[in-house]
Amino acid sequence: MTPDPYRSACEKLRNELQQAQQDLRKAYEQHGSPARLLHGRARLVDGVLRSLWQTFSMPDSATLVAVGGYGRGELYPCSDVDILILLAAEPSAELGETIQQFIGKLWDLGLDIGHSVRTVEECVAEAANDVTIQTNLLESRRLCGSSKLYRHFISATKAGFDPARFFDAKCAEQEQRYNRFNHTPYAVEPNCKESPGGLRDLQSIIWIALASGLGTRWDELARHGLITAEEVRVLKKNERVLQQVRIRLHYIAGRREDRLIFDHQEALARAFGVKPTKARRASEVMMQRYYLAAKKISQLNTILLQNLGARYQPPGAFQTRALNERFLLVGDQLDIAEDDTFERTPGAILEAFLLMEQHAEVKGMTVRTLRALWHARSLIDARFRADPANRATFLALLQEPRGQTHAFRLLNQYSILGTYLPAFARIVGQMQHDLFHAYTVDQHILQVLRNVRRFLMEEHAHEYPLMTRIASECKKPWLLFIAALFHDIAKGRGGDHSTLGMGDARRFCRNHGLDKEDTQLVVWLVQHHLTMSQVAQKQDLSDPDVIRRFASLVKTERRLSALYLITHADIRGTSPKVWNGWKSRLLEELFLATRQLLRGNTPDQLMGVSERQEVARQKLRFFGLRPGTEDAFWKELDTLYFLRHDADEIAWHTRMLYYRPRGEEIVVKARPSLVDNGIQVMVYTRDQKDLFLRLCAFFARMGYSILDAKIHTTGNDYALDSFVIMDPNGREHYRDVIALIEHELTRKLASQEAIDCPSGGRVSRQLKHFPIAPSVSLMPDEKGQQFILSIVAADRPGLLFLIARTLIEHDINLETAKIATLGERAEDTFLVSSPNLGNSAHTIKLEAALIEQLRI
Fold first, then answer.
1. Class of the 626-854 domain?
2. What confidence tens digit (pLDDT) does each residue in 138-150 have?
3. Which class is 7-161 in CATH?
4. Do 336 and 328 meet the contact criterion of CB atoms below 8 Å apart?
5. Residue 802 contacts residue 695 (beta carbons within 8 Å)
6. DSSP per residue, 318-338
7. Are 88 and 62 contacting, i.e. CB atoms less than 8 angstroms apart?
């Protein structure tokens, strides 16, 4: 084996590098200065690379160049070290092998190397075709080697450089990056580098400034009039926050990690010395600070980009016209007529946003206007909020026929909304560690407002046909915007946020001159914004009493329509994972049944047995079954069956089973459910104690979630069970697997194989760090004949199997199951019966056994 001539030198360098990096970390933890750490690690790596370059006796004609963030002289604890080996000509085979060995030794030293080996001509060609390469080369430093070659490289890359095109490319790049993160810095696991408001927003500004010859430091941009001294102070302060976050993330993760994932948030809070409050975790407090910093950076990024972009516009490029005595339209940007417009007329602060709603041609605000708005926030005080004219303007913002989504996002982004509504300011950047909200409270509220707005737009009618029709019939639909603003405004205060929010909503309505009827509607919506989803997802909608109770709560069709719209918008605004067609169907079913009842009609749910049978007979005639065909099968079914199943289900079951009510074969039939992304499965076989358990095990192993289950035993001791199932990951084309389900489930039931518990799968990261304490409630129903079992637990594969097995072990009969999954949280409701449930000792044992199974 050939001896390695560089081994000893490399081992020495590696040991020195490790020790020096440990010393840097200790020094950082003492002084806490991110700049000293970032520049210190860059200088440390500089020395290592120069030393190794000399060790390898690299040719004098070559140049070692630092590029990218390393070229900027900043290296985070686990960042890549990006280098360019610049050559005067294509390397010989011997030089190529030496370069390869050099790069390999850099990896052996423990450095994550990003490298390229190019001639000057190759650099110019590559940069012309790729803005990322162009950006990397823009921030370059010569580490060692030929200074002459490096000067040639600098002049050659600058010669073909077009600052205007570079500006456009970086703006397009930022827009694409924003799209990846849904244009919000307020996701629950943001990326402190790439998300809107992250470090990349600041780096993009520096790149454009550098390309424009305006310098590389914020103070230099201030001298060129691009940013004010006050804005420089705010920017540096918040840049430091993000730098601290990224540095500590690298140390906590032990690798390059830029996402503030749940796994690290508590550790990050401890590293910053953040303490929990009575109502919030330390991580929630820390994350709110992060969001506020990201918000400031996002604001300043907008201002700087506009100022930089203005340098590439020819004089007179934008037409100017007056909108009124206070505002101008410059191109498509709203501008103030005078620098002191807001000081002279504070009410113009809200008027600016109203003009954006009223004029579709207005796409944004000029830098002068944005700056003036930022500094004018202090003018919004108690006197401003009490001014009837300002209250009327704010109400008009909600009442305009268009533009609310954009206007209220900007109102929040520039801290006007939270200043005008102090209660809103408290939830800006507030985390929601409930494992199904994907956004902070303020962003969720704005998502809900956006969803309500979309219900009122004709162009979205194809997405929400029923919602659009209902919204178009609403009297004063802008009241829904008020309810959306206040429905979660009291989160994080402790106590019931719906009850606390009612007080905020009532004060707002009273202060803004709403009449008694409108005020009552808004307050009632805030109070009950969770009620409709709870009834739809947790109660048996086939039970007439459920519909009657809900109708007695709602009382009027106006309330019902408003609550349906708010509920729909609220659930859709939590997270893409939470909403599905099944939940939509349940809400629609509850809405339509309640509306019929309020109109004096009899909905299907309130039909008696004879009415349901008649509707089912009509459907059977449609399929060609002669009168009386169903009689033999229906004799085996009791009243409860006809009350728990709608006419369509009754007709489907009958078509499949009328000719074999006492057959020995196992009948499994499946069809696409009325929900567009699920399957309805019917099982008919001789009853057996563990049948439901077997079915749960089968569906779990197939990877399906059970959304609804109806368990029935016929008069001749046959089980007739119905399920609605779906793939939680949305991967399946359900029509393609119907035959597979029918065949495999029939085979499994016929084989009578031993029941094995399906694999529990891995617990999600979120549940590891924010576990859900399981809870079990067992209460008799209003009639005292059966019991309602309510379970809250962390959702995971096989959960329903564990519950079913425990019920069987305690001789509990399952009648129906309603499965509700909210992100990582399962909230399931079962209707059960057993003579044993009248015994309190047996009930306590059952609840304890369930809790034991539900623990992760």
1. alpha beta
2. 889 999 999 999 9
3. alpha beta
4. yes
5. no
6. S-EEESSSSEEEETTEEEESS
7. yes
Q: How many residues does the chain have?
A: 856
Of 308-312, 353-357, 518-522, the poorest mean pLDDT is in 308-312
At 211, which amino acid appears? Answer: A
Q: How far apart are CA 336 and CA 671, in angstroms?
A: 62
User: Residue ranges per domain, the chain?
Assistant: 7-161, 167-310, 421-598, 626-854
CATH topology of domain 167-310: Four Helix Bundle (Hemerythrin (Met), subunit A) (1.20.120)
Contacts of 5 (CB under 8 A, 6+ apart): none
DSSP label at residue 625: P
Which residues are CB-contacts of 17 (< 8 A; sequence separation ≥ 6)? 44, 45, 48, 109, 110, 111
Provide the residue type at 336 as one letter: I
- Alpha-carbon gap, residue 476 to 178, rounded angstroms: 35
Asked if 679 and 725 count as a contact pair (C-beta separation under 8 A), the reply is: yes
For the beta sheet containing 775-780, the strands, ordered from the edge strand earlier in sequence to the opposite edge, are 667-672, 679-686, 718-726, 705-710, 813-822, 825-833, 787-794, 775-780
Q: Which of 226, 200, 199, 201 is nearest to 212 (CA)?
A: 226
Single-letter amino acid, residue 855: R
Whose CA is closest to 445, among 504, 478, 489?
489
- Cα 133 from chain centroid (whole Å): 32
Is the Cβ–Cβ distance between 787 and 838 less than 8 Å? no
Q: Using one digit for the tens of pLDDT, what is the confidence trace for 350-408?
A: 999 999 999 989 988 998 999 899 889 889 999 999 999 999 999 999 999 999 999 99
Amino acid identity for residue 482 in this structure = I
- DSSP class of residue 794 equals E
Sign, CA torsion 482/485/489/491: positive
- Find, among 2, 3, 20, the residue nearest to 12 by Cα: 20
Local structure of residue 473 (DSSP, 8 states):
T
CA distances from 565 to 47, 120, 460, 515, 605 (A): 64, 62, 14, 22, 22
Q: Which of 667, 633, 648, 617 is nearest to 542 (CA)?
A: 648
Element (H, E) at 143: strand 141-145
Q: Radius of gyration (Cα) for the chain, nearest Å?
A: 33
Q: For residue 407, which of 363, 373, 444 has the smallest C-alpha distance?
A: 363
